[in-house]
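Hey forum,

I'm writing up a methods section and want to include a predicted complex as supplementary material. The small molecule is adenosine-5'-triphosphate. I've pasted the protein sequence and the SMILES. Can someone with a working setup run it? I'll credit the forum in the acknowledgements.
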Amino acid sequence: MEPWIPDEVLHTGAEAVVTSGTWFGANAIKKQRTERKWRHPELDAHLTKKRLQNEIKLMVKLRNKGLPLPIIFDVDLSQRSMIMQRIDGEPLIDILKIEVNHKKILHSVGKSIRLLHREAVTHGDLSTNNIMISNNESAILIDLGLAKVEYEVEGFGIDLHVLHEIFRASHPNIDAAMNHVIEGYLSVDADLGEVQLGSGGTIPSAHECVNRLEKIKQRVRYHSG
Ligand SMILES: Nc1ncnc2c1ncn2[C@@H]1O[C@H](COP(=O)(O)OP(=O)(O)OP(=O)(O)O)[C@@H](O)[C@H]1O
Ligand SMILES: [Mg+2]
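Reply by user p_vandermeer:
Happy to help. Structure tokens for the complex are below, copy them as they are.
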């Protein structure tokens, strides 16, 4: 039996091709990073491998801690590919197009982001394409290729700000949407208590990160106004 049986190509991006299929019978997706022809081939291979290793290392570590991320099934660094659990659901971008009350979903989005931040990790690319909403309405973060270990409050504020900016394009009421996300984000610290000291220092509290988001919004307004 072939472990990986491909089904159909779901997505062809600038950096990766995503195919659905099964892995030993389990619903899976294969993400294959594409070569970037404009870059020196050896340098490209090196950078792509580094990025993939970073993504896998963080995903394995965080998933082991119970964070809402897909399980990694298999990796082939020489092929620049990884096979992971397929999340049954839709990306947030598509969910926001449906005219229903998104409060519960956005709350879950905030919670998932805060769980990541509490591990001293920023996502680095928090677009509504990179947040999957499972069929039971909980948010699962994907595409951690730009994620990194972070202790400065600015990094966490920027993560939230990226999402805020993307809501402008995809949500009719950005402020209400973002408020639901923030509510979920703050609720995690209220439930789990103060964040433990990380190996690299103090991880900013949810309140500190949300305050920084507000500062970043003001900064952006000032510079664009
Ligand atoms: N584990 C998964 N389960 C279900 N769908 C997924 C999963 N991973 C990716 N997808 C689908 O494929 C799309 C693209 O995946 P992903 O964001 O990882 O790649 P990408 O954006 O091309 O990567 P990069 O930003 O590194 O170029 C997602 O928006 C989602 O629709
Ligand atoms: Mg993506």
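Some notes you might quote in the supplement: The radius of gyration is 18 Å. The beta strands are 4-12, 16-23, 26-33, 72-76, 81-85, 89-91, 121-122, 131-134, 139-141, 148-149.
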